[in-house]
Amino acid sequence: MKTNIVKTLSIILIPCSLLLTGCKDYLTEIEPGTTLLEDFYTSTAAAVQNTTGCYVPLMWEYNNTYLSEWFIGDIASDDALKGGGSTTDMADAYDIENWRTTDQNTLLLNFYRAQYQGIGRCNLALEYIEKMEIGIDEDFTPEMKNRLLGEIHYLRAYYYFRLVRIFAGVPMPLQVLRSSEDWGMPRSSVDAVYSQIMADLELANANLWKKSAYPADDLGRATKGAAQAMLMKVNLYMASPYWQKYGITKSPAECYADAKAWGDSIITSGEYDLCPNYEDNFTVAGENGIESVFEIQYAEVAWGDYGEGFGFTAGSFTQILMRSRNSEIGGGWGFDHPTQNLYNEFEADDPRRDVAILIPSTDVVATYQMQSDENYLGNTWVNNKYGMYRDPEAIGGGYGKWGLHASRGPLNNKQIRYADVLLMYAEACLGKGDAGTALTYINKVRARVGLAGIAAATDAALRHERRCELAMEGHRWFDLVRWQGVDGNGLKAHMDAYKLTETEEAQHHIQEFVAGKHEIFPIPQEERQLNPTAMEQNPGY
Fold first, then answer.
1. Residue 131 domain boundaries
2. Neighbours of 158 (CB within 10 A)
3. DSSP states of 423-484 as a string?
4. pTM of the entire structure?
5. C or N terminus of the chain, fewer CB within 10 Å?
């Protein structure tokens, strides 16, 4: 799959012109030698290439600034501080970290636009692949056509899910936008966006293949299990008090029941398991393995691409963004510092703590003058999962067990692991009042890393386990938002208490968390100016 994605980084340039084309007659005249869009869709290879292109915006981490989702999922939460060279390094991320975000934030603007690039590709592919006739060549069977359509529905749902949980309701085009007049659409309600996500995922589940049915070269594509895992996740979001307040028409009881049912389908499929060694999940060798449900694919590439914008790299910038600034052990940019609060969450004998958090030795700190070069507001710790990943054969190695790359790396981003599925299943069981089954699956996750089983499954136990298992993987903020109010505590109380656990330097920068505002982020002002039709701003911004 990595090779396939690299080959399609620049495909689907024709839709860009479609988005800008008006209805003037002179624009509809066909010049001699012109290739019509329809002429592209004449083979299975073309349909596969078009579908693969729909994955590509998931990979994008840079346009006018860096825009990886973990800048929100980790840094907005109690799991991580921004890090970097200083408080002014990546000012957009500093604002997200400290509740200073405005609608001028370019990280949010570029993230927003990347998702709509993906949605645009999906809408185009759905329209034209649906029209392709079975038997156009010997490989275009009903099964192949349905699989490709299933992948595209999955991806469109994924892009909308990334948008709704950050911005709430968003404009929701479900067709190709062929003129500037088509842009003027209002924000859809949160309920409508979640409903569309569910509809796309259900179509994906009906048409996708099981993971084991894909040839080795196609591992990494969306599968039936990936669709079912997302159906679990979306139902858990819709069941939460925070998202219910937006008028979700499906009741929490229905959401928990459906999440458990989708979990039953995955667990009984025999397609997935926990890999024996937890740390293997964060290696190149462990990619797309037995625990992998869905990963964003990256590849080792040689060309330089810094500063080029969307789509100019098949490698991940995350590695250089996260790894230690210390040239002795990393030579990266030092973003996404794990917090003391996260460290304290782990039990003393939990091996996942050292997989998630690298604490440079005293000798390393001294030799690199860490106080000025790595110290971010009193914190010198490093994201060990992605920043210092294990790949001794990698280009630019020589730093012991770590594989380090000049400006980008090949390590996939694990969006959904089977451990995540098991913990979502336990959460759904708790929502249904089945604490016994929930306990079984919480303890299954703990047993993999050699921890003793807990005696009783509670919300607090589930949340502890989820935080430790998925630490520094970009999930924490979104979990905190959807969990607020369940124990009567609320997200504001949680974040206020977290602030007091940070260093005095960090506390000085953190502004007050405002309930009813900071759970979501502002619609970028540039997007509101481009689409003024009923594009109201989120409360407080």
1. 2-279
2. 28
3. HHHHHHHHHTT-HHHHHHHHHHHHHHTTPPPPSS--HHHHHHHHHHHTTTSS-HHHHHHHHT
4. 0.92
5. C
